[in-house]
Write a structure and sequence with these properties.
heterodimer; A: Alpha-Beta Plaits; 2 domains; 9 helices; 4 strands; 58% helix; B: mainly alpha; Rna Polymerase Sigma Factor, Chain: A; Arc Repressor Mutant, subunit A; globular
């Protein structure tokens, strides 16, 4: 504790100032390695990092609780766009260039996770196709040919089921993630950057049950962050 | 535009509402931001992520909206925010609930500190991206975040929550 206080009285070290960025996973590979090495050799720094991870999780929780804008904002925007003068033809080319730039600017981490998510979705789709084929081989019972596309691919959900934002360890394999999803009866409902929004089961949970679930999740080796969200 | 709006409007709204602290103003803000994007799409050169560009525009619009408010109103708001963190009996009652206290104190940070915490932790922006959005040098990004965290620790301490740092 004394050492920490002394640390604060002085100017913070470069590594110390990089800790929040390390928690958010936005450092370059070189800086991330420097921070990892410092954390491994400095218990005081590691203690501060634990505090930072708590702040990180609560900042996400706080922002997620802010809700979303009403449809009014979108209606206002598109009414304003309708009132704009016609665009020049070169615009589409510029937008294409912008979109290309957007993909080019994604970090390797984001691209890797997007690829992982794609793999998970492919596996889930394969599962659904397999299930449909097996079902069709069973003795004929009358059924309609339609399959609802509004339902999530992996399992049916109800809005009351708890949800959480989860971040997996960078070295987590797709097989580990799918095993975890199965063991928690969880489905991926959304993803952004390196974070996944999971929905657990199909029933509502009490606050205590949810807290227990989050603690279990946080203790999983491949989970680096789990925050309950609405 | 619908795809771009669908992908980013919630984050733009949340960044905006944390700056202006008014849902109505934040909703107006997102319409203005995306209208600007529609008008200036040709200026986007792809050197930064689309979300970084959007957050920079949102910040500019939010500050303009705040400037339109009377200075007196702003001072009152800032004072209330500080009192909230230190004196609100709710925070004291929730001493043991670090999570709740943390969220309360995160909301009580100054706008300058709030935005940097949100950009790094929630919007997952790098040092370089935050520097671009806020318009400050990269070293200032790092020191500002450090002192925002220190302020957060002070607020928590005043609310009776000790976390072992500092």
């Amino acid at each position: 504790m004394m050492a920490m206080k002394k640390m604060l009285e002085q100017e913070p070290s470069e590594i110390e100032m990089l800790l929040p960025f390390h928690a958010a996973g936005t450092l370059s590979a070189r800086d991330a390695k420097r921070v990892e090495e410092a954390l491994a050799s400095d218990p005081e720094l590691a203690k501060q990092y634990a505090v930072i991870r708590e702040e990180y999780a609560e900042t996400i929780g706080l922002n997620e609780s802010l809700g979303a804008p009403s449809a009014r904002a979108m209606a206002k925007l598109f009414a304003a766009i309708d009132g704009e003068p016609a665009r020049k033809p070169s615009m589409s080319g510029r937008v294409s260039a912008g979109i290309s730039g957007f993909f080019a600017s994604l970090s390797p981490r984001t691209l890797a996770w997007s690829a992982s998510l794609g793999a998970v979705v492919l596996l889930a789709q394969a599962g659904v196709i397999g299930a449909v084929l097996v079902k069709n081989e069973q003795p004929a019972t009358f059924q309609t040919a339609s399959l609802s596309t509004n339902e999530p691919i992996t399992r049916s959900m109800v809005p009351e089921a708890p949800r959480a934002l989860v971040k997996f360890a960078p070295d987590a394999r797709v097989a580990d993630i799918t095993t975890l999803l199965d063991s928690y009866q969880a489905s991926i409902v959304d993803a952004r950057g390196g974070m996944f929004r999971l929905q657990f089961g199909t029933r509502a949970m009490s606050r205590d049950e949810l807290a227990g679930l989050m603690n279990r999740l946080k203790s999983e080796k491949i989970v680096t962050l789990a925050v309950a969200t609405p | 535009m619908q795809v771009l709006y669908g992908r980013h409007h919630v984050r733009v709204f949340r960044f905006g509402i944390r700056l202006v602290r008014d849902e109505q103003v934040a909703e107006d803000l997102i319409s203005e931001v995306f209208l600007d994007v529609w008008r200036q799409a040709g200026k986007f050169e792809g050197r930064s992520a689309v979300s970084t560009w959007l957050l920079a525009i949102t910040r500019f619009k939010a500050l303009s909206a705040l400037r339109r408010r009377k200075d007196v109103e702003l001072d009152d708001e800032a004072a209330n925010a500080i009192e909230d963190a230190a004196d609100d009996p709710e925070v004291s009652v929730q001493k043991k609930d670090t999570s709740q206290a943390l969220r309360k104190c995160l909301s009580a940070l100054s706008p300058e500190h709030r935005e940097i915490v949100d950009l790094v932790y929630y919007h997952e922006k790098s040092v370089e991206e935050v520097a671009e959005i806020v318009g400050i040098p990269e070293n200032t990004v790092k020191t500002r975040l450090f002192y925002a965290r220190k302020k957060l620790a002070d607020l928590l301490k005043a609310a009776g929550v000790e976390r072992g740092w500092p």
